[in-house]
Input
Amino acid sequence: MALETRVYQKERTIKFGKLLKASLSDMYHSRFLARQLAERDIKAMYRQSYLGILWAFIMPLTTAAVWIFLNSSGTVKLSNTGVPYPVYAFTGTLIWSIIVASINSPMQSTQAAKGILTKINFPKEALLLSGVYKLLFDSFVKILILVSFVFLYGVGFNTSLFLFPFAIIGAIIFGTTVGLFLTPIGLLYKDISKIITFGMQFLMYVTPVVYAIPSTGIMKSIMLWNPITPIVLTARDLVVGFTPEYLGYFSVVLAVCIPFLFLGLIIYRISIPIIVERLSA
Output
């Protein structure tokens, strides 16, 4: 079998189309490696855990439980959501956990592979694809639990549930796009991961995750300008059988994300070899 020959030379211009094509090609050809890495990480994650795969939804469930208790006890008075509040809160926190995991995925997958990045030459896009595989696995488990939760509280089956996975894919695309831009900086400075954790905790309270959008006031304006709002609301509407009120807004956010996703892939492809060289120096 003939070995591939690559010639490296200095170029004065960056050809974005060529870089994107190479990135997508490497991602496609490294899909087997990405699957192997994802399987290894998933097995390692749950191998020495007593609760195992239950951890996939314990965090969103406990967050929802806190708000359910606050609402039912009268400690916090929330506006009418139109559906049983436990379903509303759990759906919102579950979708939110997927978005947060998607933002963290590129950085975590690359950070976890720092040991082999400095020793083995392989397509770095395999790490991104591995992270997507893990996100899809984690999301699939959460969707099964969510469907059970919906039936438990009497919302019942509706055909829009079949479209819910597409909303989840939209959430993963949005989160991954944001994560790609943060990854190069996050690999160099650990402060970035802490800023993401703090920032997402704050952002959750200006997103209709556990309470509805107010009818008036500055909070309504902030929530409507928040690009995560249509993702959460569209996904929730599909779960409970409502007509998605913000489907157009959701489509616009997703359409804007696609070119930025490609740009993020290009930045990742350019920056990671430089960062790896710096780490190995």
About this structure: The two ends are 34 Å apart (CA to CA). Residues 247-280 form the longest helix (34 residues).
